[in-house]
Each structure stands twice: as structure tokens, then as C-alpha cells.
Amino acid sequence: MRAPVGLVTSRLSMRHDAGPRALDRADRIELVERELRSLGLAEELDLLEAEPIARELVDAVHVPAFVDWLAATSGRRPTSLEYDTHVGPDSFDVAGRASGGLWMAAERVLSGAWSSAFCLSRPPGHHAEAARAMGFCLLNHVAIVARGLRTRHGLARIAIIDWDAHHGNGTQHLFEDDPSVFYASLHQWPLYPGTGGAGERGFGDGLDTTLNVPLAVGTGNVEWLDAFERRVLPAVEAFRPDFVLISAGFDAHAEDPVSRTKLDESAFARMTSGVLEVAARLGHGRVVSLLEGGYDPGSLARSTAAHVAALLGKER
């Protein structure tokens, strides 16, 4: 009998104050939850409440002094860290639970208790650098979990697939000299944060364990999926990872205000199915995803539901 698909959420995620002009609004989570319930998908998922991440896992990725600085914002009035990145009194705790929820999901998939999982959380994480919060991101959740799977569970190779419309500069920079972590990103080019050119392939021992696929403004399903299926999936499979993490941003949707990429929700379902097929061929099937971007309420809800449906083995 197939193990259930997990869904990790946090009731505290609504308490992150991302600033008065922020696109990362609390209702992003509520709208996705409502969509999953309305389609009957929520009742097919094994639900789990996120717990805080262990500090030592965070310090293995982020500079401890930076983490101390972020932690010191707890309980204080809202503060702007950068022009697009803000914290409120609960933001550090909320971000820690986003990382913690992803860690819990990864451990359950690793144990076989879940077949795969999706983590519905905020704020996003893939722009966060070792000692810098940026692009709405405070902690780099996928990086924390990837390193934890290596150090605590002894997995030899981890793959991170990032299909957010924006390049995950933080994730790339944290692993670009590390041959044990393969980072692959499709993203609109040019677009914030300005990194992710095709020539960025890692360096030193990590050379060629970074794959960037920058795609032009206006790219639609056909071109995006062709790049994903002909370039990203074969490269991930050739790396033979023991675990696959997905930075699942949905802001490449045609209705999203922050990009000019033209995907619809079916593209996210097809990419999800493709990752599951690769993981199955590798003999372990371990896939866990985390919400990154996606800022149009309707398209975010529909795209996330299509992604979750694909994790459940349903075609929508």
C-alpha cells in the first residue's frame, strides 16, 4: 500500500508581517488551503503542524551572527531589512517553522511514513544568503534541509529543483562549490535578483553541479516544459540524488504580477509528475516541495492545487 502524501502547514504563518507593500501576504496561505479543501484534496493528505527548526541546523547554513541578528528582531516593532524584505515581532519564529516544517516532511519521507510531501509556508527562502535576508526571504529553508539530510542522515547526494520565476541566488551560492548538492533552476531572464546566467555552473569541486536555464520574457508552457524535460530532468537523473527537494514557486504563471512568463497551472502539474517519475526511476521516490513565490491569489491557489494533485497521482 502506498504511503500517504503529507501536507505541512503552520497556524503561525499568518503572523509574519512582511510590510505594508509586501506581496507575500498572509492570505496567500489561506487561499491555498481553501482551494485544497474545495477540491477535496485536503482530505486525502496527511496533515502536520510545523515545529521550529533546530538552531544547529540553521547555523550549518547561515552565519550564526546573522541568525542572532534576525532572532533579535523577535518581539520588536516591524523593521525593514531591505527595500523588499521586512520583519515583524513574530517573523523569525514563523521563518523557523517554515524551515522546521520542511525538515519534518523530509524526515517522514526518508523514513517511508510519507511517499512525498508539500510544505505550505511563508516567508519564502531561496533568496536568503548565508548572511543576508533579501527578496522576502529570511532563512533559506531548502538549503538548511539539504545540508541536514547530508550531515544528520548521511545521504550522499541531494538535488534541489527550483522552478520559481526568480533565480534562487541564495541556494546556488550556498552550494556552488559543493559536489554533493545539485542545484537546477529555470527562471525568467532578465529578472530580479539578476543572477542565474547559463554560464554559472558552480566552481571548484562543485563545477557542473549547478544548472541554470534562463528563459526569455514571454516564455509559455511549450518552451518552459521543453527546457525542463530535455535539460533539467535528465541532468538531475544523471546526478542520481538520494533525495529531491523542490523550491516550488508559482510566480511564473501568466496571471502573476511579478513576472512576464506565461505558464498556466497545467505546467506545474506536469513538472511535478516529471520529478516524481525521475525519483521513482532512481529507486527511492523521495520528493518534498516547499512554497516559494506566487503572488496572484487565484493563480497561486490553482497552481498549488495542481501541484498537490500531481503529488497525489491525480491528473487535473
- Which regions contain 5 or more consecutive residues with pLDDT less than 50? none
Shape, per Cα inertia axes: globular
Q: Order of SSEs, N→C?
A: EHEHHEEHEHEHEEHEHEH
Structural class: alpha/beta
Distance between the termini: 23 Å
The number of helical segments is: 9
Largest sheet: 8 strands, parallel
Classify the helix fraction into a percent range: 25-40%
Whole-angstrom Rg:
17 Å
Strand order of the largest sheet: 2-1-5-10-9-6-7-8
Task: Name some characteristics of this structure.
316 residues, alpha/beta, eight-stranded parallel β-sheet, two-stranded antiparallel ribbon, 36% helix
Structure description:
With 316 residues, this protein is of the alpha/beta class. Helices cover 36% and strands 16% of the residues. The strands form two sheets. An eight-stranded parallel sheet has the order 2-1-5-10-9-6-7-8, sandwiched between helices.
Summarize the structure.
This protein is an alpha/beta fold. It contains nine helices and ten strands. Helix 1 links the parallel strand 1 (about 5-10) and strand 2.
